[in-house]
Predict the structure.
Amino acid sequence: LATILRYGALPTTFEREAVESVSATLGEDSLNAGLIAGLGGLLLVAVALVLYYRILGAVAVVGFTIFGSFLLLIIVMLGQFQGTTLTLAGVAGVIVSIGITADSYIVFFERIKEEAHRGRPLRSSVDHGFERAFHTIVTADTVTAVGAVLLYTLAIGPVKGFALTLGIATVIDVIVAYYWTRPAVLYLARSGMAEGGFMTIRGAVGEVQEVPA
């Protein structure tokens, strides 16, 4: 404290060397670029899921739509009631959440394939696959959510926007997985999209010899 007071008492003056003005459109351009990057990444993920998981990938694409709609709705509501704005850091959190959500679908679909290759019928594979996959999904999302809460609590500035969108996205991911993904795949497993051609669940799982569950 003595050192701070001593140096603060020195007769020091400051001279302005340069002044630079940055247009407000720079931030808008960066935000738009982030949104375009996020949409492009989402499109690539959707195409990859459909090509690899066939009809299950289509379920994931619809799930992404539901996920994005809920996330956007919450952000808009926060903006209206609490003045929250979507910053570039927040967009980064949304982009990261796309990967987290894609991982949830992949874990579930791979569990279905594992159960089917063990000899279970498709319906049973979906039930047992989701039961095991959902535990993994909840565990992974809980870790991410805890990290987002800690980051939001301890960080300052734009980082809070990243933590906020990431935390909201992880909660939505669990809800969509339980209330959309599982019922949708179960419906497909009981319909004509279970067996048959390239785009069916059987097409994604591959030919296996089934035995009674």
Summary: The helical segments are 2-8, 25-53, 55-82, 88-117, 122-154, 159-190, 201-205. The two ends are 75 Å apart (CA to CA).
